[in-house]
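subagent[fold] <- orchestrator: predict structure for attached chain, return tokens only, no commentary.
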Amino acid sequence: MAIAHTSEIKLTVELDENRVPEGLKWSAEDGGIQNEDAKAMMLSVWDSKNRESLKIDLWTKDMPVDEMKIFFHQTLVTMTDTFMKATQDEKMTATMKDFCDYFAEKLELK
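subagent[fold] -> orchestrator:
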């Protein structure tokens, strides 16, 4: 099957003199996003050849800790939803949801 379309997602990291992120910007033309600011990002990709995930976790030095906790919680919730869509494993999804609730409770996010 021929590729009908390609889509590009672009990440730009602005670094200080010590190579610590000061700014993050991202673009996704198909989503109508152009150079939007971000304070943190997590990117995971699956290396099928080596059967391992590769990741990039970045946050700017002015990312507040309270916002980082919310970011983590929302990421865990999203991962739970994605896990369900990808696997249809309702039992493990329920366990993951329970953990997300526990995480939010312990961090006093709810």
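orchestrator: received. Logging for downstream: The mean pLDDT is 96. The radius of gyration is 17 Å.
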